[in-house]
Fold each of these.
Amino acid sequence: MLIQRMHLLKSLQIALITFGISSLGASIPTYSDISLPVIGDTSSSIVSMQKEQEIGAIFLKMLHSQLPTETDPELVQYIENLVYRLAEASQLQNRRLSIILIDSPYLNAFAAPGGVVGINTGLFLHAKTEEEFASVIAHELAHLSQRHYARGVEAAQRQTLPTMAALLGSIVLAAAGAGDLGVAALSSTIAGAQSSQLTFSRTNEQEADRIGILTMVRASMNPRGMADLFERMSKMEGTGPQYEFLRTHPLSRSRVADARSRAEQYPSYPSRNTREYEQMRNRAVVKMTQSLDVVRNRFRQELSSGRTPSEQATRYALALIELEMQNPKQAGKVLAPALTKSQGNDLPVQILNNQILFAKGDKKGGIAGMRKLLAGNPGNYPVIMTLADLLHNDGQYKEAMTILKAESRKRPQDPYIWYLLAETAGLAGDITGVHTSRAEYFFLVGNMDDCIQQLEYAMEQPKLLFSQKAALKTRIDEVNAYKKNMKL
């Protein structure tokens, strides 16, 4: 595993050297004091915005290829909606973001060049409210909007320039929850930081807290959520690798107190511990658990004792568990009160109910229910993907493929869509579609050779129209040019 991660770090260094960026000194901030970055600004002129986007695109490919990602449509859409809501209230000028949800129980989040925002599913386990969850995102968006890394480079020019590759490599390791392994992997390049650089990094963290609190206020969210989470996290510091966020964002007593005092300057908003957040938090717990029996007992106890933030969310979790354990009849019984109470206004419950109907043998009813939901919620990602999944499981591959094709045009940078499309195209008998979809999947995870090979396989298929062959040839040329320019 260490060899694999060091190989990834070397790949990052090669990619950055492509842009004329290389190691120019040995005095670099230590791993625990690195601020998560946006690279380049107009004053330093070290990296243009275009180069920054290119770095971000390569970094995103490496994340997709090296780290397990959570592709659950309901969790993904919830995170995307929350990030963009906060982004609208932030000081970001460029709000073109690439959001990746990493399947890891560690509490962590990061921001990187080109607007890459990464969030571990483990954040759901530790953020008790939506405000606490949002505060971490608001903090990372502040790092992006304030261009902290570029300012660090500008200040460091009077001493020694930090190595961008080492910085990005540390983010990859942190995202993977590498802990001490990350420190060891980078020890040869990031030792011996000067005190002025460390102070500047801590200043960045405090500024990101301040701007993040302001972002939450502008988004009409209670800014006390940041202080609440920080205060609880500060008591956990050093207790285990699950708190990886604390390595890259060390919490001193003064920093926690400062976040509290700043939050208290704003009016107190009512808690936004929404039913949707509780549902998605419970969904994440179910997805991450090692034992469905254990979490089922936990949620049953919550429900019977009445000590639950949301009965609806607890019933939702229990029904989801029963469905995962292939007990659809029991799932339906558990969900029924929540379904009645929602009166059709709780989309996650409605989606789950249709999945239960399908699993109980009422396939037509489940699919019809999803079609009705889609008519009332056009463009909704979880609804679209659930309908495609039910159609796929019912053997209606061509319609499922049509739906996934349309979704691939809306989310062309999502490897998960292309992976599903390739699988469905194969079952539908569309061999050309298999190869072209696989090609796009390989492109998005940074495997250019396999991407080109799949496009060449597609060109060999009989009965292709001239226009189709021309389009495939053009795409091969584009990928070859990208491979050459990026040195991938």
Amino acid sequence: MYKKTTLSNGLRVITERMPSVRSATVGIWADVGSAVERPHQRGISHLIEHMLFKGTHRRSARQIAETMDGVGGNLNAFTDKETTCYYAKVIDRHVPLALDVLADMFLHAAFEPQELAKEHKVILEEIKMYDDSPDDLIHDVFLQTMWRGSNLGDPTIGFAETVVRVTPEDLRAHMRAHYSPNCVIVAAAGNVDHSLFVETVAEQFAGFEGNCAFPQPESPTLTPATNVRYKDSEQAYIVLGTRGVDVRDERRYAASLLDTVLGGGMSSRLFQEIREQRGLVYSVYSFQASYRAAGLFGVYAGTSPENVQACIDVIVEQFARVRNEPIGDEELDLAKEHVKGNLTLSLESTSSRMIRLGRNELALGREVTTEEIESRIDSVTPEQVQAVAQELLVDENLGLCIIGPVDEGSIVWSSHAA
């Protein structure tokens, strides 16, 4: 069901047909994110994403919204560290219309100064929203702390002082530098015919020419430290973590199972120890932030200020346990089925499949089948998971970030960063 065609201008077109559904998700991917930005323009990639919805030479912002609402479609976009994606989910017969709207936005954005001035304000409000959401903000603080001074470490949304300085010409220059056919993918998943879709894409992008340099993945130096930000809140928000694996690392399957065993579900060690056995938190989980040449692994917990030390102690203890003791076969089998089950459930969504198509093409340059992933997961041994834990979860690489009513001097832990 997977097919790929490269047009004469270098644009890649990828589809995955799902004949059992009546919908499709179409996405236009640009191989650019905040990791390529210069510090004084931090947030420009995300600002471009916003501005493509603010009108073209053919359609106003309202007309873009009404066109998609008129067919019951969903139009959206996201920017991350290494990619930007504009996408629409529609009934299958409206795929040509969705592609027309997306291509119009992508190729003919107006970037009117008055609209940019309004969008500056919108993004400033978005930044304030994140600042008032410590459970989200703590993840940005963690990246900034562990990759201090790097592009990957700084927030994708940018900073208030950098966002407001971006001009329409800055936006156009950034797009000229990074939005060329060789660095763009058009992907679709759902009830789509590849040949017809390629024809439609070729028509919509007939005048899209040029060439740009592929982005060079950043591999920042790890800078573990303790970073406590005082905030007068009911809870304290904790991330304790270390370096991880990148998305191209062959150990990523073992790392995924390590993540699952430690904090990937209700049966995970951290959930059972911190929430079920001790009642210290409502939310606790582990996570991976993986990019093309770098990665981080961390544990999040939200708890009352008086329980911060106890949560940290349990996390450090569990890191030591998974380093020192091989995971039992039964626990590892449970983790494998958890990972494979989540993968299978995600495949029922055309949006999830389209996102997998784009991410795999940009990061790996190829399709990664479900069968390949399941085979690689099944082949992981307890010794391989322990080896990853022994390499990653070492005390000298641990960084601790806290937002809440906590005095840094009251936190005691064994890492050199304390």
